Amino acid sequence: MVEKVSPALARRIALAAQGFGRPHPSTVGTRQLNGVIDRINLLQIDSVNVFERSHYLPVFARVGAYDKTLLDRLTFAAKSPHTEYWPHEAGFIRREDWPLFRWRMAAYRERYGTDPDSWYQRNASTVDWLRTELASRGPLVAGEIEHDANKRAGPWWGWSDVKRALEFLFLFGEVAVAGRTRFQRRYALAEDVLPSSVLDTTVTTPDAVRELIRRSAVAHGIGTAGDLGDYYRIKRAPAVAAIQELEDAGELIPVTVGGWERNGRPEKTWLHRDARLPRSVSATALLSPFDPVVWYRDRALRMFDFHYRIEIYTPAEKRIFGYYTLPILLDDRVVGRIDLKSDRQARILRVQSAWSEPGAPAETVERLVPLLRTTAAWQGLDDVAVTAPHRGDLAPLLAAAL
Q: Exposed/middle/buried for 95, CB within 10 Å: 0-12, 13-18, 19+?
């Protein structure tokens, strides 16, 4: 039985569990795309589009260039096999997994919907009107709903009352997403979107939490209680209880990993019994800031010695690395970060900064250049250019190599 795991093996286990280390398929179709989603269980959504929306990137990192319209059919279409909820943050999940989050829907309703002084209760008439509107006209995007309250107020990111009510009903599970149009959610009553086989399925909270922790363990391969809980944003106490049940059942194996410490002592860590223990992992990939490999920043620091923060909300003059830097994965190490912009008008993929991490291998630039060219082609762009050769130690080397 495995009891001690080296940090390098822990990295390889984690990356193999996430689908890295396999040759990219020669052709990427629906089967391969479903395979990625089935492996990592969800695709986190983010609206930033300076390079590419985040949910497309984990698939590209694992299988290479693919037709994004195929993924759109799996996620955006009204009758697609996936829907949206908040499994980690906002994300795409399989429709049949929706009942696993009823406990979260109930918790959101208790938190936001029961207090007489809450916004939701104070705007009950708008909510009731909205239910009637969706029943008669849905599915609809928020902008298609005509109501006196459906007016923007404040800055551009301000939500109208109608949009806010829709989001509350979505959190509560009363409204579901019936695909997207131009990246805008189409809302409908859940019974008009989800099949009865999903709506009629009831999963108790302990069973749902245990199943989500089990899936987290499979997707991680190896992890601490914090790692396994974070995947589905499950609080520590219920996560630890579920982990103990899975350990008692023999599905999770307690191990220690060198250097993984908490309060000066080896941190409790578990290996999934079916996890692969590869001797090597071969990978060259750009990771979304919301890729499961790095989205839990504590794990990224512990596993890869990679301190990662995106600087979208940092004033430009105070940014260190760039607006939306992507971690660079080479084999089993995160070796740098790169800030990319898809200049669609000029048809150029622009490198706005590029930085290496300590100990990055000498072949980093040599391996990164063909990946950038493949990335540009996948984006429908004709060339790659380093916009600011002074921004980062990798930038001038990339400029010369390109």
A: middle
Distance of CA 26 to the CA centre of its chain: 25
Question: What does each C-alpha distance from 287 to 58, 103, 148, 168, 300 come to in angstroms?
Answer: 7, 31, 43, 31, 12
Buried b (16+ CB within 10 A) or exposed e, 332-354: bbbbbbbbbbbbeeeebbbbbbb
The pair of structure tokens assigned to 163 is 């949009």
Average pLDDT of the chain, as a whole number: 94
pTM tops 0.70, yes or no? yes
3-class SS at 200?
Answer: coil
**Under 8 Å between Cβ of 354 and 391:** yes
Provide mean pLDDT across the span 339-357.
96
CA 265 to chain centre: 31
Q: Are 334 and 300 in contact (CB under 8 A)?
A: yes
**Three-state secondary-structure class, residue 10:** helix
Number of H helices, E strands in the chain: 16, 16
Residues 6+ apart with CB under 8 A from 301: 307, 308
Tell me the one-letter amino acid at 187.
Y
Predicted confidence at residue 155, as pLDDT, reads 46
d(CA 143, CA 196): 29
Return d(Cα 402, Cα 387) in angstroms, integer. Answer: 12
Structure tokens, 29? 């179709």
State the distance between the two ends of the chain, measured CA to CA, in whole angstroms: 49
Q: How do residues 255-306 score in pLDDT, each as one tens digit?
A: 999 999 888 888 999 999 999 999 999 999 999 999 999 999 999 999 999 9
User: Is 50 exceeded by the pLDDT of residue 371?
Assistant: yes
Let me know the angle formed at the C-alpha of 281 by 279 and 54, rounded to the nearest 5 degrees. Answer: 150
